[in-house]
Design brief:
Layout: H1 17-33, H2 39-69, H3 82-114, E1 117-118, H4 127-141, E2 147-149, E3 164-171, E4 180-185, E5 193-196, E6 204-208, H5 209-215, H6 217-220, E7 225-236, H7 250-261, E8 266-272, H8 277-287, E9 294-297, H9 307-312, H10 337-343, E10 346-350, H11 356-367, E11 371-378, H12 386-396, E12 400-405, H13 413-425, E13 429-431, E14 442-450, E15 453-461, E16 475-480, H14 483-498, H15 515-531, H16 551-554, E17 568-569, E18 587-588
Parallel strand pairs: 1-6, 8-9, 11-12, 12-13
Antiparallel strand pairs: 2-4, 3-4, 3-7, 5-6, 7-8, 10-16, 11-14, 14-15, 15-16, 17-18
Length: about 600
């Protein structure tokens, strides 16, 4: 029977990418709304929702706005143009913001008050606490503030992306002086939530820094009548724009773009209600935004800073039980890690298995006199990265150390660049990713002189070699000394660093060469099994996987913009036991454009 021709894709088969992301953020919000979760965990989830929305506007909404302003009318696979997508996003995002503040005002704040954690406005504090707060304002806050009233000599100050500010309308009672707009920038260096001592026994009083400044605005504008005031925040376009094919030095180009990020075009204005129409319009005008770009906050602007409450509120009854990930049973003797891995593969499932095993292995490799070389990819580092520190130590001990640092990892570019420069100064050979693509592979390769000769040891993971996020995100990591697999890992490193010719991999699927075809072959196989009545299933956890079919992806010599890929190995293994089975060598990889 001839094969039925494939039907052309239809828009109803696809979800809009941005609306799908907002649906994900809705699920985070539902965790904050869930009364079954510990109270401070719910506060933390609420803060994450707000932080996620800010990044969403900085990147995705900003990109769509640019497409719409450029007059692009192309339709995505879901059938939407940029203008239609923006309209749909606006409806969903506004509903999400309303629900976010309803969760705070109607659920979390009352629940906290029942537990003795209160958030009164400063003007509603008892007299003794108001005295303390006024003195604190005069001593700690007032000296740091710079009030600016706009006139021809004092233009509207630059408002950095995500910064918190206070806006006010001033009347000087001088008939020749018009009503003036004034701005006070809230210092980033100061805590946005802090505790006021005193008050009723068993009650802990917290205030928001912005509320305190608004309460004391008259101290900043002596002699003027404050007609209206509000807290506001501006979200700016944070996309980096680098023509990688044209720049001579990618690192310098990225650093220049990072300096411009805070000065990107405004895409959203948030204001705290109630606020008068005149003040709204003044802010929209000076920021060159339209009414559709204005979002009203029925509570503290930048509610993501409630995460500070989670850090300072010590009542264990309100917190989630602390989970301490155990060391994998096979890796509990840190001095025998190489022996254990050589004896058989070990599969880790984070955060249920401690990430300390990965750090221990790298630190042991750095100090082991038998280790000759270490190769490592770094996508998202932390400020105090033990992985980067171990690489520094290895280089200082004279080992050959190579690190591929992805400097296009969004919002982690600056941290990555700082670590790259430190490592380079210590003698680590640094490669800054690849032109045209992001390198998403999570690979570590250690070359060691064992008793019977040179042997490679590899760690292949789905995480970011970030010890902080490894405590929260679910990821797999595989330790292996299998000669066939480690040889292929070594070939991937050689390709990443030298742009050498493409090779054939039997155990790794490497984009842009074999990932797409490998996944499609496996999907077809399971479909055939299902049609034949045999057991069939597909279990996949994907995060923005992208491997576009093109002639360039099939030709290594076509263009430097195709010379990137990444590999992350997955295996099927029982949850219990010390080692993964030797079968199932399939590994999948993704390169994200």
């Amino acid at each position: 029977m001839p094969e039925t021709p494939a039907r052309p894709p239809r828009p109803e088969w696809f979800l809009n990418r941005e609306l799908s992301w907002l649906a994900f953020n809705r699920r985070v919000l539902e965790e904050a709304q869930d009364a079954g979760n510990p109270l401070l965990e719910r506060v933390k989830f609420l803060a994450i929702v707000d932080s996620n929305l800010s990044e969403f506007f900085e990147i995705r909404v900003a990109g769509l706005k640019q497409q719409a302003e450029a007059g692009l009318t192309a339709r995505e696979p879901d059938g939407m143009t940029a203008i239609e997508a923006l309209a749909a996003i606006d409806r969903v995002a506004r509903e999400q913001v309303r629900d976010l503040y309803a969760c705070w005002n109607d659920a979390l704040r009352p629940a906290l008050e029942k537990e003795g954690v209160v958030f009164p406005h400063p003007e509603r504090l008892p007299a003794d606490q108001q005295v303390w707060l006024r003195n604190y304002f005069q001593r700690e806050i007032f000296p740091v503030l710079t009030p600016i009233a706009l006139d021809p000599a004092h233009p509207f100050p630059f408002v950095a992306n995500g910064s918190l500010n206070i806006a006010a309308l001033l009347d000087t009672d001088d008939p020749e002086e018009p009503v003036r707009l004034a701005v006070v920038q809230v210092p980033r260096v100061m805590a946005r939530v802090f505790r006021v001592p005193g008050g009723e026994e068993g009650r802990r009083t917290y205030v928001f820094l912005a509320d305190v400044i608004r309460w004391q605005l008259a101290e900043l504008f002596v002699g003027a009548t404050i007609l209206d005031h509000t807290a506001f925040r501006v979200t700016r376009n944070s996309n980096l724009y680098v023509d990688e094919e044209e720049v001579e030095n990618l690192l310098d180009a990225i650093e220049q773009q990072l300096r411009r990020r805070r000065r990107g075009d405004p895409v959203r204005l948030e204001v705290r209600i109630p606020v008068g129409e005149r003040l709204r319009q003044e802010l929209l005008e000076v920021l060159d935004l339209e009414t559709r770009d204005l979002y009203e906050c029925d509570g503290p602007v930048n509610i993501s800073r409630l995460s500070q409450l989670v850090e300072i509120e010590s009542d264990a009854r309100l917190q989630a039980p602390r989970f301490v990930a155990p060391i994998h049973a096979a890796l509990r003797e840190p001095t025998k890690l190489f022996q254990t891995i050589r004896a058989g593969d070990v599969l880790l499932h984070h955060p249920f298995d401690s990430f300390d095993s990965v750090v221990d292995f790298l630190e042991q490799a750095a100090r082991d006199p038998r280790v000759l070389a270490i190769k490592q990819t770094l996508y998202r580092t932390s400020e105090d990265s033990p992985v980067a520190r171990a690489l520094l130590e290895a280089a200082e001990r004279g080992k050959q150390v190579t690190a591929l640092v992805e400097i296009k990892a969004r919002f982690d570019e600056e941290k990555n660049i700082r670590w790259a420069r430190r490592m380079e100064e210590a003698g680590v050979q640094i490669v800054y990713g690849l032109v045209g693509l992001k390198t998403h592979c999570k690979l570590m390769l250690v070359v060691r002189r064992d008793e019977d000769g040179i042997r490679r040891y590899a760690h292949i993971g789905t995480g970011n070699y970030n010890h902080a996020t490894a405590r929260h995100y679910t990821d797999f990591g595989l330790f292996t000394a299998d000669p066939e697999v480690t040889t292929e890992v070594a070939s991937v490193f050689n390709l990443l660093t030298s742009l050498s010719s493409r090779e054939r991999w039997n155990h790794l699927m490497v984009a842009p060469f074999g990932l797409r075809t490998g996944l499609l072959e496996r999907i077809r196989r399971e479909a055939e099994n299902a049609r034949a009545g045999r057991p069939a299933s597909i279990v996949a956890k994907l995060n923005a996987i992208q491997d576009e079919a093109s002639a360039c992806a099939r030709s290594w010599t076509a263009s430097s913009s195709t010379r990137a890929w990444c590999a992350s190995r997955t295996r099927v293994a029982p949850r219990s036991g010390s080692a993964a089975p030797t079968g199932c060598r399939a590994t999948c990889a993704a390169a994200s454009r």
